[in-house]
Amino acid sequence: MNIHHRAGRRSSGSGAPAERGRSDEAVLGARLVGLGATQLDNAMDYLREGDQFVVAKIDRLARSVADLVRITEVLAKKGVALKILDMNLDTSTPTGKLMLNLLGSIAQFERELMLERQREGIAKAKADGKYKGRAPTARAKADEVRKLAAEKVGPMEIARRLDIGRSSVYRILAA
């Protein structure tokens, strides 16, 4: 996602203001892929009236129509336009707003179909005995955890020796 500043504010890309005289429109770039919602929230907080929020693809911005609506409402309240590059879509126009909502609905529909097919495939594989899920790791070592705990070995050391998480050690000991 990129943030284009229109009101003379500049950014060097590091969040600090750029030197005067570099350009009228500065760009702060960050990829949303793999970033948590907190990064999106940080970008949304950084936006100011007159900015343009640029994303490469709509599915990199929102996972559902509800998310898309929430994000576009926040952007509209701030006076920020949204531009989606792969669709050449700009929400600063009425047509762009209409297309965004239509495409967002279609994207959510496709995702729900994909998830439904995935669930059906897993159910069929389970029925055929081919899908057993993830093998239990820590619970299979419960007896060893209890034995080491009885020997007064601490939870951190038990976790290290058995190569399991510390929270798993506590869960086993609490049971």
Main features:
single chain; 175 residues; alpha+beta; Rossmann fold; Arc Repressor Mutant, subunit A; 2 domains; 5-stranded mixed β-sheet; 6 helices; 48% helix; elongated
CATH fold type of the largest domain: Rossmann fold
Order of helices and strands: EEHEHEEHHHH
Number of strands: 5
Helix fraction? 40-55%
Radius of gyration: 25 Å
What is the name of the CATH architecture of the largest domain? Answer: 3-Layer(aba) Sandwich
SS element count, helices: 6
Biggest sheet architecture: 5 strands, mixed
Strand order of the largest sheet: 2-1-3-4-5
- Fraction in beta strands: 5-15%
- Low-pLDDT residue spans: 6-35
CATH class of the largest domain: Alpha Beta
Mean pLDDT: 78
Indicate the structural class: alpha+beta
CATH H-level homologous superfamily name of the largest domain:
Resolvase, N-terminal catalytic domain
Shape: elongated
The separation of the N and C termini measures 46 Å
Number of domains: 2
Short description:
The chain is α+β, with helices and mostly antiparallel strands and 175 residues long.
Could you give the topology of this structure?
Elements lengths: L1 E3 L22 E3 L7 H10 L5 E4 L9 H14 L2 E4 L4 E2 L3 H34 L14 H9 L4 H8 L3 H9 L1
Parallel strand pairs: 3-4
Antiparallel strand pairs: 1-2, 1-3, 4-5
